[in-house]
Amino acid sequence: MARISPDGYSSTYANHALSGDAARLAELERKVANLQAALESQRVIGAVVGLVAQRYGCTTDEAWAFLVRLSQDTQVKVRDIARVLHDSFNGESREDDVELLVTVTARLPGRRWSPECLRPL
After folding, report:
1. Residue 4 located in a structural domain
2. Does the reported pTM lie above 0.90?
């Protein structure tokens, strides 16, 4: 028989409620982590849209459309293209991004964004 707590609930019910709270907390923590990652990706994408627009003398809408088309042509997500261009621009490229950076820069107009931005690790 379940014991009744002073507030009138059985300890079995209280344990079930606590395990439900723990599951809910874990789910909320996962959602917060996903939102933080999405915000960081959006920040990087926005920066790269601005860099592409400035470098190629186009509007930000045209720069975004170009990145989307580049993503479709290469079968690489926009966020990954943006990350390697962003890291290259900041001299923070990773060794495992070299192949993608070369692929992306080969498709840039006039190839004015060169892999020379890649600095040694």
Report:
1. no
2. no
